[in-house]
Amino acid sequence: MSAKIILKSGKEQSVKRLHPWIFSGAIKQMQGSPKEGDLVSVYDNQGGFLAWGHYQPSSIAVRILTFENTVPDAAFFRHKIANAIEFRRRMGFFDSADTNVFRIIHGEGDGLSGLVADYYNGTVVFQAHSVGMYLMKDAIAEILKDLLGDKVRCIYDKSSQTLPFKADIEPVDGYLFGKPDTNIVLEHGHKFEIDWENGQKTGFFIDQRENRQLLANYSAGRTVCNIFGYTGGFSVYALGAGAKAVHTVDVSKPAIAQTDRNVALNFPDCSNHQGFALDAFDFFAQTTDKYDLIILDPPAFAKHQSALNNALQGYKRINQRALEQIEPGGVLFTFSCSQAVSTEDFRKAVFAASVNARRNVRILHQLSQPIDHPIGMFHPESEYLKGLVLYVE
């Protein structure tokens, strides 16, 4: 029999507003001794049913799966995954001639808290962010195989980096089904080599796809610097749009090596790209070059609320350095992927950087994540990616 969780009086309100997380501080009592990953039912202090979800002994104590009083079973998960895939079909992702890389399951945005899956030209890369989802990995792989049919050739589990550190399991990444016959994908006609086994996240920052396409509109004839460039996504788009020169900066030597391969995939005779395996601040400290277009796409400076103040200082410092390095009339694409940093906080940090750099700026665009990374209406935390495009006088 599954464990029951009773909430403190008043703490049921967020659940009734369909928020998919229950925090540990909201719990009054646990009836039973659930293990991490177990399904638990949740009730208010008067005994009224609220939800079913996966239990985990952390600040987010329950990741809600359903607000209906029916135990989530194999049919439930098949229905949820089918809905996620059908949404991408309706949005045209499976029919695109020039793009075959996208997210097919986006956690809370698809009603599957703790589960992410990305599609790379026939390979699905699966990441569990909860033990509950990890324990279901084989069943989820079977569902994906059945629903995707000949669209999927292999499924790779890459959960070792995303499972809660307290989890009493020792996950090993590996193929749940099949083997890939290519690691080359197309994104808006650009080719990219993806290393899902060793790369960051699932191998590529798919969430910047439409923002990379927007960058192309500003790149022709400009000198471009892609800071925190990873494997060169923004750099390839800038080169394809006719940038005069492009520099890619990332602290990881393997990432810069892969950037060079991605540039060569698209532009075999390219002579106007250069990669720098350097820390971003070190690069700015030693370069004398000025740029017409700079991209700042750093890793999450704040993964938790406790790190928020330090993160905002980090965003302010790096944006100030970029603003000091940009030519008058230049354009800055600047981003935060920190869930703990609100849109307002991020804008304040960039505002402070502009003041400190003594540069007048105009906001050209306010950016977010693409439609295959849907934002749950009842889960504002799922709007994690924020960006600004600034015209710098």
Specify the structural class. alpha/beta
Largest sheet: 7 strands, mixed
Rg from alpha-carbon coordinates: 22 Å
Instruction: Tell me the name of the CATH homologous superfamily of the largest domain.
Output: Vaccinia Virus protein VP39
Discrete helix count: 10
Overall tally of domains: 3
Number of E strands: 20
Mean pLDDT value? 95
Strand order of the largest sheet: 16-15-14-17-18-20-19
CATH overall fold name of the largest domain: Rossmann fold
- What proportion strand? 25-35%
Q: H/E series, N to C?
A: EHEEEEEHEEEHHEEEEHEHEHEHEHEHEE
Low-confidence stretches: none
Global morphology: globular
CATH class of the largest domain: Alpha Beta
Helix content: 25-40%
CATH-scheme architecture of the largest domain: 3-Layer(aba) Sandwich
Ends apart, CA distance between termini: 65 Å
Task: Describe the structure in your own words.
With 393 residues, the protein is α/β, with parallel strands linked by helices. It folds into 3 domains: 3-66, Archaeosine Trna-guanine Transglycosylase, Chain: A, domain 4 (Roll), CATH 2.30.130; 74-184, Transcription Regulator spoIIAA (2-Layer Sandwich); 205-392, Rossmann fold, CATH 3.40.50. The protein is 27% helix and 28% strand. The chain is built from 10 helices and 20 strands. The strands form 4 sheets. The chain has a 7-stranded mixed sheet with strand order 16-15-14-17-18-20-19, sandwiched between helices. Strands 2-6-5-4-1-3 form a 6-stranded mixed sheet. It has a 5-stranded mixed sheet with strand order 7-8-9-10-11. β8 and β9 (123-128) form a beta hairpin. α5 (209-216) packs parallel to α6 (233-240), α6 (233-240) runs parallel beside α7 and α9 (308-325) crosses α10. The N and C termini lie far apart (65 Å).
